[in-house]
Amino acid sequence: MIELDEVDLTILSLMQPDARMQNAALAKELGMAPSAVLERVRKLEEKGIIRSYSTNIEPSALDLKLLAFIFIKSSTGPGNENVGRQLVKMPEVLELHNIAGEDCYIIKVRSTDTQALAQFMRVKLGKIAGIISTKSTIVLETLKEDNYLAVPTK
């Protein structure tokens, strides 16, 4: 367990929605010297608490309007490492989760349309030895989609 103090938590809550926040603005918000804030951020990066900085792209701008979740069952049961290793390499797979229950994995995939999704399933998933069944759920409307974590306050 990594201990985070109130300053760390405030840094995380400010940076999570705006990773481009300037160090000077962050320091002003915290009432700290910019050098001290920069050091804090570097330590959060080194500890792996801040894992990366990314750009959140509107999927329709890339013609990726179809969102689907695919449940995957493998022949050797939960956590088939061979299946997982192959799925994680696919750029179409936005999320990969090993799950409890009847299925072994659930993946989140975006594609241009249902034909592209079917092609992905036939060509890419179809080549993975060990997948015995899939079940797809197509999203009709997204009401909320983000990866922001609820940062606790002390």
What do these coordinates show?
- The protein folds into two domains: 6-46, Orthogonal Bundle (Arc Repressor Mutant, subunit A), CATH 1.10.10; 64-138, Alpha-Beta Plaits, CATH 3.30.70.
- Helix content is 32%, strand content 19%.
- The protein has five helices and four strands, in the order αααβαββαβ.
- The protein has helices at 6-15, 23-30, 34-46, 81-88, 114-124, and strands at residues 66-74, 93-98, 105-111, 131-138.
- It has a four-stranded antiparallel beta sheet with strand order 2-3-1-4.
- Helix 2 packs across helix 3.
- It is elongated, with a radius of gyration of 20 Å.
- The two termini are 16 Å apart.
Keywords:
154 residues, alpha+beta, Arc Repressor Mutant, subunit A, Alpha-Beta Plaits, four-stranded antiparallel beta sheet, 5 helices, 4 strands
Residue share in helices? Answer: 25-40%
Secondary structure class reads alpha+beta
| CATH architecture descriptor text of the largest domain | 2-Layer Sandwich
List segments where confidence is low: pLDDT < 50 over at least 5 consecutive residues: none
The average pLDDT value, as a whole number, equals 93
Supply Rg. Answer: 20 Å
- Strand arrangement, largest sheet? 2-3-1-4
The first-level CATH class of the largest domain is given as: Alpha Beta
Could you state the order of secondary-structure elements as H and E?
Answer: HHHEHEEHE
Total domain modules: 2
- How many distinct beta strands? 4
User: In the CATH hierarchy, what is the superfamily of the largest domain?
Assistant: Lrp/AsnC effector binding domain/regulation of amino acid metabolism (RAM) domain
CATH topology of the largest domain: Alpha-Beta Plaits
Query: CA-to-CA gap between the ends?
Result: 16 Å
Strand content: 15-25%
Number of helices: 5
Biggest sheet overview: 4 strands, antiparallel
- Give the oligomer, counting copies of the same chain as homo and different chains as hetero: single chain
- Which descriptor suits the 3D outline? elongated
